[in-house]
């Protein structure tokens, strides 16, 4: 799926990212884009054509790219630093830590085609460690939108937020989620399905799969609360308290569960409300293969989430 166009009813969140960025840039001359020879993969061609003096292409030089972004922020601009998530977060980690987070530069880091979207290109191009790495950095907001609407809302919130933000922009096709009419707010999760038997806490491309899993469980009389934890840092502790109150939690993410969303939930539960957990994610370096194949191999599907839910319910019941 990673190399194909989205099917009907499925959307590439990069499109929502660039459409929102162009709209905001038209009214806000502070907004600029900085890329690492990634105008095409970031889908910023129209932005470049429309605002030619507001796109800086530094070439394949990620450390320089983040440094340039921090410099522009210091000059009063609002830079969106866009590049493949695997290279942006790994190669420029020191600049993200020091130039952006420690210095509290108003930089918006956009990890494009994150997770296993570049599946056929292998482990060098998988971006599965990014949330785990960046969640460990103090004063860096980490957002993993779940669908096009939330991607656009996250871009708007990032512009309004004074400080460094990492936005994980997926290109794996996802559907528009059915949600209550509530605005997106950084640090506030949303409940997409109610249930009292267990909670499924998911982010990004796993959210719609979590909703599908909850519907399968409901057909068997099991009530699963689905929490879309789009902001991984700072995490919504009130939502975690509600999840723990069900007595069992499954986390699901397109990345490393240890250190990522799963790790964040487990840390909170260990300190405040220990409950049985199952953490779905990737175990480490992955082979070459399509994104869908990699997800299926590691249970990152609706049926995989259902299986994890049944396991954790057995633990909850002492089975």
Order of the strands making up the biggest sheet: 2-1-3-4-6-5-10
User: How many separate structural domains?
Assistant: 2
CATH architecture group name of the largest domain = 3-Layer(aba) Sandwich
CATH domain topology of the largest domain? Rossmann fold
The rough form would be described as globular
Low-pLDDT parts are 1-5
Number of strands: 12
CATH superfamily of the largest domain: Thiamin diphosphate (ThDP)-binding fold, Pyr/PP domains
Mean pLDDT rating: 95
Order of helices and strands: HEHEHEHHEHEHEEEHEEHEHEHH
Architecture overview:
By secondary structure, the chain is of the alpha/beta class. The protein has two domains: 13-169, 3-Layer(aba) Sandwich (Rossmann fold); 190-316, Rossmann fold. It contains twelve helices and twelve strands. It has a seven-stranded mixed beta sheet with strand order 2-1-3-4-6-5-10, with helices on both faces. Strands 7-9-8-11-12 form a five-stranded mixed beta sheet, with helices on both faces. Strand 8 (198-202), helix 8 and strand 9 (224-228) form a beta-alpha-beta unit. Helix 8 (207-219) packs across helix 12 and helix 9 (237-245) packs across helix 10 (261-272). The longest helix is centred in the first third of the chain and has 15 residues, at 13-27. It is globular. The relative contact order is 0.13. Mean pLDDT is 95; it is low at 1-5.
């Amino acid at each position: 799926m990673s190399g194909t166009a989205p099917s009907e009813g499925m959307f590439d969140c990069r499109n929502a990212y660039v459409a929102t960025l162009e709209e905001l840039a038209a009214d806000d001359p502070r907004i600029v884009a900085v890329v690492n020879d990634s105008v095409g993969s970031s889908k910023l061609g129209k932005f470049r054509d429309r605002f030619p003096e507001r796109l800086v292409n530094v070439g394949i030089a990620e450390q320089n790219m983040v440094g340039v972004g921090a410099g522009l922020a210091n000059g009063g601009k609002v830079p969106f630093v866009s590049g493949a998530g695997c290279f942006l977060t790994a190669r420029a980690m020191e600049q993200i830590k020091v130039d952006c987070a420690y210095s509290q530069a108003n930089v918006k880091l956009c990890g494009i085609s994150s997770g296993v979207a570049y599946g056929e290109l292998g482990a060098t191009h998988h971006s599965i460690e990014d949330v785990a790495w960046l969640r460990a950095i103090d004063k860096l907001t980490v957002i993993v939108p779940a669908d096009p609407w939330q991607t656009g809302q996250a871009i708007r919130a990032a512009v309004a937020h004074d400080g460094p933000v990492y936005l994980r922009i997926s290109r794996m096709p996802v559907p528009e989620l059915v949600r209550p009419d509530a605005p997106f707010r950084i640090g506030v999760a949303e409940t997409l399905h109610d249930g009292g038997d267990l909670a499924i806490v998911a982010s990004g491309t796993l959210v719609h799969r979590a909703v599908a899993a909850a519907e399968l469980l409901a057909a068997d009389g099991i009530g699963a609360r689905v929490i879309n934890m789009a902001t991984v840092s700072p995490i919504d502790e009130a939502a975690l308290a509600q999840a723990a109150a069900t007595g069992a939690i499954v986390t699901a993410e397109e990345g490393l569960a240890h250190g990522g969303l799963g790790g964040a939930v487990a840390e909170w539960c260990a300190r405040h409300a220990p409950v049985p957990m199952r953490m779905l994610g990737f175990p480490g370096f992955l082979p070459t293969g399509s994104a869908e194949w990699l997800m299926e191999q590691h249970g990152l599907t609706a049926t995989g989430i259902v299986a994890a839910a049944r396991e954790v319910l057995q633990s909850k019941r002492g089975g």
